Amino acid sequence: MVLKYNRNEDFCFAEADKNEECYLGKADLKMGNNGFFDTSLKKSDKNGCWKSALQSEYLYFYFKLRSNLQSMKGKSDTVPSQENRQGIDDRHQKIVSVLAAHKVALWEYDIRTGVCSFDEDYFRILGLTEAGVEFSDIDDFYRFAHPDDVSNYREAFGRMLASDTKNACIRVRCVGNKGQVIWLEDNFFSYQSDEEGRPQKLVAYTGNITARCEGEARIRALEERNRKVIEALPEFIFIMDDRFFITDVLMASGTVLLHPVEELIGADGRTIYSAEVSDLFVRNIRECLADGKIREIEYPLDVESGRHYFQARIAPYEKNKVLALIHDIGDRVRWSKELIEAKARAEESDRMKSVFLATMSHEIRTPLNAIVGFSELIAAGDCGEEQEEYQEIIRSNSNLLLQLVNDILDLSRIESGKSENHFQPVEVTGLLDEVGKVHSLKMTAGVELKIVAPSRSVWILTDRNRLTQVLFNFLSNAIKNTQHGCITLGAVQRDGWLDLFVSDTGCGMPENKIPLIFNRFEKLNDFVQGTGLGLSICQSIAERLGGYIDVQSQLGVGSTFSFCLPYRADAELEVAELQQPVAASVQKHPDRKRKVILVAEDVEANYRLLAALLKKEYTLRWVTNGREALHSFVRERPDLILMDLKMPEMNGIEATERIRSISPDIPIIAVTAHAYYTDKEQALAAGCNAIVSKPYAIADLKQAIERWINPVPESAVS
Predict the structure, then answer these.
(1) What pTM does this model have?
(2) Which of 195, 521, 541, 616 has the fewest CB atoms within 10 Å, measured from its CB?
């Protein structure tokens, strides 16, 4: 590049080839024979003050060189020829043309006067003329500037004037008369310094950068759209190459990953995933890149917190890379498993229902067949000496049918969650004796019942009725399956536990069948009558009481069923405290030879049954509703009341409450056909001392009456 200066024209010109870099700054100027200064501008080192420019930046070095003319004036008296002047003009025009082609125009600002001077075609080059924008000075310019940009431009222009360098780049919008927006960019440089070196003028080149700004706006819009898309993603995006390296991670702010992002970017996927999952990714990535089709895969990922399940949707991205949209499907997998499990439970429930109906049909019809058949024989009067035997068969089958109904009710309560426990102190030795007496009459000929009780009185806090129910079931099964030898009922203490057991010398069970016996409708012997519900109910009772059932059995030798309950030694003290008020609260009637029982029962058949059972031992008074029961209590002052809960005029609950307001001591036993605990709870809350469910076993009824009508003396309690 050649620098040429003409003294008379006060003009300096530099020209470069299209692809040549230009360097401006300090140069060694030498006077040539042609009267011009010729110098080649060289690239400066990092400590120099040279300036580089490309073709589109002709303006910079054009005015820079012009600003340096003052130092060159007076150094040559040589006057250039007309030919050389024409050449300079041509070259000057070339620069102006290049600037105009790039929509760049020139203007000057006099720092001293504030006067602006605009280059020829300034407004046309910048496209302002067509928009109806034309101004003569800075203040006039502000009329066309965008309102949002005026303040910023004023501040930037003021800072530039106040600076030492007087260099600045300011971007501003102009608004045409039809609302057209034109983006301008002013680049300011200072020149014509005074004697003290202070700049006197500013030169600016202004570029129309509307296309650039609109492009930038589109880019920002795309970036914002992409940001919103990423924010809306359910999870996150991996950018992966065909070697399964993660090159980038895109995700919404606040997304929490199983691995830190800094560990994922640039990582080999094989360090994160198992070999099986890695092979799955690599295969699908390469297939996606080969045919351009989207792939979907599902895979597990094991981390310290456990196993997680994900879905990856793989799509081509660029060259050898793919986008992998990763979605956590743990909830879906879990729901799928739950649906499968629910379906299995529903199918099992349906199967169990069918089994239940079939079993119930068989188990109900079998005792009913005996009851109906032998009842007809007795009614016909043709049984003769076998009548007593027939009656016993009817009784045993009635008990079996009753047990069946009770089992079904228990099962219903357990499944509905309405089965509740009522803890109370229970003396173990007395309980074993009571249970043993009931079952001693049921023993098969040739089978002995033994009771092994603790050597001293042992008390335990538990639900007496439920405990009795479990022992009854154990003994019933033992009696069914034992044809010779003995059955042992007992209790054994060990550390923190009390084991109540039933051991027999019966047929026993193979080891592989023991885990199955607690399943519903599972029977030890398909040819022995029973519902197959008893042991399942017993297991549920044991769990609710905080214990468990243990089974030891050997085929052909016998079995031992143990009900293991938590045991506290201090339970005995609580029992003593509870029993004393009970004994003291019962009023005695020494003047009476027989105890009086008031029976509140609206069904005559039920009263006649009670009368048949109790008239030999007690004097009975019968009323048919709660109101009569209240009046009879006031008149008769009975020793005990058998209160039906469902009666006309006044039900048993209300009658009990009224009687309790008169006397807190009279024993009241509720006799009801309602089997759910909600009804029983109401009766207990009203003031009933005990509850006997219909149909009741004679032994259970007499035991309850005896307990409350003939209480244990206080001396015995102490």
Answers:
(1) 0.39
(2) 195
